[in-house]
Amino acid sequence: MKLTELKALAAQMGLRGVSTMRKADLVSTIEAARRGNNLSQARSEHKRPAADASERHQSESTGEQASTPTRSRGRRRVATAGAVEPRQFSLDFPGSDFQSKPLAPKGDGHDEGDSSDEHRERKPLARKGNGHGRSRSNQYDRSNEARENRAAALDVRAELAGVHSDDDSADAEQSGSESAHRKLNEIELPEGDNANNSRGRGRRERNARRRGRDRDERRDRSDRSERNSRNNRRRDNEPEIREDDVLAPIAGILDVQENHAFVRTSGYLPGPNDVYVTLGNVRRWNLRAGDAVSGAVRQPREGERQRQKYNALVKVDTVNGMSVEEAGERREFGKLTPLYPNEQLRLETTPKAVTPRVIDLVAPIGKGQRGLIVSPPKAGKTMIIQQIAKAIEVNNPEVHLMVVLVDERPEEVTDMRSIVKGEVIASTFDRPASDHTTVAELAIERAKRLVELGQDVVVLLDSLTRLSRAYNLAAPASGRILSGGVDASALYPPKKFFGAARNLKEGGSLTIVASALVETGSKMDEVIFEEFKGTGNMELRLSRALADRRIFPAIDVNASGTRREEVLFKPEELRIMWKLRRVLGSLEQQQALEVVLDKLKETQSNAEFLMLIQKTTPNAD
Fold first, then answer.
1. Helical axes 523-533 vs 464-474, angle rounded to 10°
2. What percent of the chain has pLDDT above 70?
3. Which fold has domain 338-616?
4. Residue 59 and residue 102 in contact, taking contact as beta carbons nearer than 8 Å
5. Could you give the CA distance from residue 359 to residue 348 in angstroms, rounded to a whole number?
6. Do 200 and 138 meet the contact criterion of CB atoms below 8 Å apart?
7. Domain regions of the chain by residue span
8. I need a surface site. Which of 61, 73, 84, 306 has the fewest CB within 10 A?
9. What is d(CA 217, CA 212) in angstroms, rounded to the nearest whole number?
């Protein structure tokens, strides 16, 4: 029965003072009121054993009387309703130091009611005291509290069971006892007067358990992290391919970053169809940044949801056209021996193509050259780069040509792609600076991988100044700022790019010809040019004054030149060129260019031009 139903039943029986009773006390009061006459007989038969137990219990636990007011008060209420004489109960639990407190002697119902009311009035005052009772109650753990509650319930059950056992005959006594037990089994255990202390202990115990769970969870996370790392290492080393997997072929350029790598399938810029490669597989398959990789990825099954943004590379077929085993035997670019350029890249094509002929004479380009085209704005540097690219394609088809356009106008990119048949790698000015740097780095890494295979590669960069500006924006600030707002660390990556040009003793060469802007009115551009001025071994300088007079190519022949040009020219050609240099050095900038252009128009080739110079100049030696 519920508590409200029990209170209604007690009201019908005419019992008073039941509104504040707990369920256990209320049931005891009702049962005692029903069987008041039989309780007297049961009391006489069970008085002596209970008294003995109470005396034994008082001798063992005299100090426990102040800590269990709940049970004492509950038994006082039972005695008040049923006019039962004082009895004492003692419950001993094996293996536990807990014993129930004997019931205190009770007076008549009026005194007991007064004492109960007085006890309830004193209870809030005791809680506001010095906390002595709270400190004593906090000494019990949760298990002792549970045993105390069970002992209180057993006291009530034992009392009512004794009443039912002496009330009727054996059959009636058995049925009544079973009915009483069924009712008592529905009674909830009492909480006791120290419920607040119990709740406090419960909170502390919950906090302790929560802290324990947190520690366990941290240990579990650590274990899971370790297992996952082992699994990742195992997975990195050995990608699993099952028989029912459907593989899709892919191909692209490998871009190795700090913590991962991607196969760029749509060019040199990141795209949605890129393929993810773990660093473990990069080491396992002997891959390097800039490798042309062809392999396979696992296609998702029908209805399977892809958990990762990018498909992972599970198989590698070829690396730069070689097998994986052959790729592991490649030479490293940084360990190869650089030399001065000793083989000239001839740019002369047709008699009317004057610009390549002038470059061959005043600033020859060799395989492995590191050249700068120093140009003010609107001096025709883009046209010169296009003519150099076309001349290399015509005269040197074995050379792998790459044109890298950084921060350029989109129409110039389209024009370059329509003219040059080689690779045109571009990042227009409307893209972020990080894309400019990504394109340049991946392009130079691709060129290095080709050089490792023994090929001759030519990279035309437009422009080195804009690439340095992009690094100045994209690179993290080092705190060391040069004049013009250039970060000192921002100049290292462009120098690394430009310094990769070299002629290798073991075979292969990397030629880089880059343009640098001057006379722009920007202090930053001047600082960048000054940093790169001494790094090149060839310089082709353009003049804004010649371009304003519409004299093209606007090349300053006296300011242009190549270091160690005697290695590129034949001895007889070198003597004639020095003779021509002495003549041009005594002329003004415009006059010198006009003399060269006039003589070139009179001849069909540079060889004929040199013969003409030798004949017309009296002091040949």
1. 110
2. 67
3. Rossmann fold (3.40.50)
4. no
5. 9
6. yes
7. 247-301+308-330, 338-616
8. 306
9. 8
